[in-house]
């Protein structure tokens, strides 16, 4: 019962955080799992998807993000430096780094993202 409640709260929290970003961008987030680890942090795994021609919107995370590209192509821009990503590539983004994704091509850009973030802060914060 407690696990179901925690899973429900996790889904709600991830959806809210993703929803806040989605309102100003074209990102869709689907939560998969949340683990309270390491101490003081939470590890969140989810699928993030941006449609062709779209962007994720400039934002930061209160911890690291790492991921694996499942499909599509995009430019990952981390603090002004651009890295082109395609299916099969992996990436990492340091704590607090301002970043964005700009999708190229005619397919959605879909990643399996893993966030290890400070559990007292929101998953993502929009950046100017």
Compact overview of the structure:
The protein is an alpha+beta fold.
Helix/strand layout:
Blueprint: H1 2-22, E1 27-35, E2 41-50, E3 59-60, E4 63-71, E5 73-78, E6 81-86, E7 90-93, E8 99-104, E9 109-118, E10 125-126
Beta-strand percentage? over 45%
**CATH architecture descriptor text:** Sandwich
Order of helices and strands: HEEEEEEEEEE
Helix content: 10-25%
**Rg, alpha carbons:** 14 Å
Beta strand count: 10
The number of helical elements comes to 1
Identify the CATH homologous superfamily.
Jelly Rolls
Instruction: Assign an overall shape.
Output: globular
- Oligomer class: single chain
Termini separation comes to 41 Å
Number of domains: 1
Q: What ranges have pLDDT less than 50 throughout 5 or more consecutive residues?
A: 4-24
CATH class: Mainly Beta
The CATH topology is what? Answer: Jelly Rolls
Main sheet summary: 5 strands, antiparallel
